[in-house]
Amino acid sequence: MSQTPATPTPPDAWEALRRTTQARIGLGRAGDALPTRRVLEFQAAHAAARDAVHEPLDVPALVEAVTAVGLGEPLLVTSRATSRAEYLRRPDLGRRPDDLSGLPRTEAQVGVVLADGLSPRALVDHGPRLLAAIAAALGPETTLAPPVIATQARVALADHVAEAMGVETLIVVIGERPGLSVADSLGI
User: Number of folded domains in the chain?
Assistant: First the structure.
């Protein structure tokens, strides 16, 4: 009795493309469903995104890293949201500062607010290096206000900071809403 040789498995045409993107492409099928490996990858990405949103900002670590950039001791502000849960439920409170009386009037050309936003992890992981790159790109001819770290903050909170400090231009670096491919991205 002769055996029919096994048909070789064709190469996965999607593999090369998967290595170039974090998008979920060419996931395959296992009957009527996705392969278990792809389902587990999705669940892990979803869990990382949820964790990124709920993780509190490590303020002492961020203060230390921002201080090391050499632009002065960072100033701290918080929004009117009193907890992470309230911040997530009440976006309006994240847009308004609790108290800005501790901010000096600087009349600097540029200020930078480092806001936790929806990914505090992203701010800790990438914020200080981005702040250093911004300062380097602006050069010594630009006057910079001391950096501001804002917690439970939405973008609009920075408008109040800019007005209180009297800066001409304000750059907001904020943790972006995590997606299923990246949980630690920043927006400017």
Answer: 1
